[in-house]
UniProtKB/TrEMBL annotation:
<dbReference type="Pfam" id="PF00923">
    <property type="entry name" value="TAL_FSA"/>
</dbReference>
<feature type="compositionally biased region" description="Low complexity">
    <location>
        <begin position="8"/>
        <end position="19"/>
    </location>
</feature>
<dbReference type="InterPro" id="IPR001585">
    <property type="entry name" value="TAL/FSA"/>
</dbReference>
<keyword id="KW-0704">Schiff base</keyword>
<keyword id="KW-0808">Transferase</keyword>
<protein>
    <submittedName>
        <fullName>Uncharacterized protein</fullName>
    </submittedName>
</protein>
<feature type="region of interest" description="Disordered">
    <location>
        <begin position="1"/>
        <end position="24"/>
    </location>
</feature>
<dbReference type="GO" id="GO:0005975">
    <property type="term" value="P:carbohydrate metabolic process"/>
</dbReference>
<keyword id="KW-0963">Cytoplasm</keyword>
<comment type="function">
    <text>Transaldolase is important for the balance of metabolites in the pentose-phosphate pathway.</text>
</comment>
<comment type="pathway">
    <text>Carbohydrate degradation; pentose phosphate pathway.</text>
</comment>
<dbReference type="InterPro" id="IPR004732">
    <property type="entry name" value="Transaldolase_2"/>
</dbReference>
<dbReference type="GO" id="GO:0004801">
    <property type="term" value="F:transaldolase activity"/>
</dbReference>
<dbReference type="InterPro" id="IPR018225">
    <property type="entry name" value="Transaldolase_AS"/>
</dbReference>
<keyword id="KW-0570">Pentose shunt</keyword>
<comment type="similarity">
    <text>Belongs to the transaldolase family. Type 2 subfamily.</text>
</comment>
<dbReference type="GO" id="GO:0006098">
    <property type="term" value="P:pentose-phosphate shunt"/>
</dbReference>
Amino acid sequence: MATMSRLSTPSPTAHASSTFKSGSSQPKILIGFYSGNNFNAKVSSSKLAVRGNHARSGPLVVRCSQVDGNGIPAKRTVLHDLYEKEGQSPWYDNLCRPVTDLLPLIASGVRGVTSNPAIFQKAISSSNAYNDQFRELVQSGKGIEAAYWELVVKDIQDACKLFEPIYDQTDGGDGYVSVEVSPRLADDTKGTVEAAKWLYKVVDRRNVYIKIPATAACVPSIKDVISLGISVNVTLIFSLSRYEAVIDAYLDGLEASGLSDLSRVTSVASFFVSRVDTLVDKKLEKIGSPVALDLRGKAAVAQAALAYKLYQKKFSGPRWEALVKKGAKKQRLLWASTSVKNPAYSDTLYVAPLIGPDTVSTMPDQALQAFIDHGAVSRTIDSNVSEAEGIYTALEKLGIDWNDVGSQLELEGVDSFKKSFDSLLDTLQEKANSLKLVSL
């Protein structure tokens, strides 16, 4: 088993492996390289590009081209091992039209999708795929923000349909698609509850997760929304203290629901990873001592390991067992922000050391393709908890205040999503104006 020490220490990106070799005896998903005008856009428009030492000419795509003796596309990758052997669900952190682009990813082992305002800002503003629906909405009298939500809801509904088989096969354990309430509501407890209720109603899919940020104002919202029987993806968690509050809100919501069967109310807690290192590394470089510099790239994984320890503690004991008797399911930890921001670090730094049962890893293109290409599957999240505790404490001794780190990252995260949301609305208004359809 790989140790946390080896996995958490930044290292140059490894060279691409030959994991996927063609051969009739063991057909697999092929990872192919194509020039921009030589591949089928229906399959490859997601352009799973790998940066750093894995750069290639042309976009990298996943294509289900090999078939077995019955002509059925082969569907075996390391992502299947991740789920089947270690109990971790790989999800895809992206969504755009056409949602059928998700099909080869589902075949490769992806088991769910996460989205956020930044993802939709990029998808809608950079694609013509939304133009026809947008034109119809505006011509029918819809305002810009109302039109935005209809565009989003359609994508979420269509994606939910694709993941329904996984949802059914796992009895509601997996196969979810997440959609976030307006980031403008991050400081509005009641507004967030109402927005979550509205989104849940209009999406009208069993396997939708309503995303709510883990701000101080929205933690009570999580309890209220869970108590209504609505499944929630709690996002923007950056510290252990806030994570514990999120768990308590989930438990409080289950207890307040009054439901005799809790099996259909589920949740994930999205614990952000790479952004922690981005901020803490800057603080360590400012300190500049050999001890501080040696801790660069280790804070995020260490804190995540301690989050998993907290998860194990909170979802055990009499209180939890009483809820289990009513069918309650654990609020799984979801590792978010898994892309590597520092090119000097391994491109699987925020995936490989965080493998463990009852968890989810949601990966954007870069991290997903890197792990498919050369990721190793073994339980790593709790392989060396004592080392994680040592790193966490050592950072505190250097003056790193974990709660301050969490608060700053939360503010930055909320602000980033608000800017993406506002920017997209501006883009849609400009598009409407250019079509001479509406003006404010």
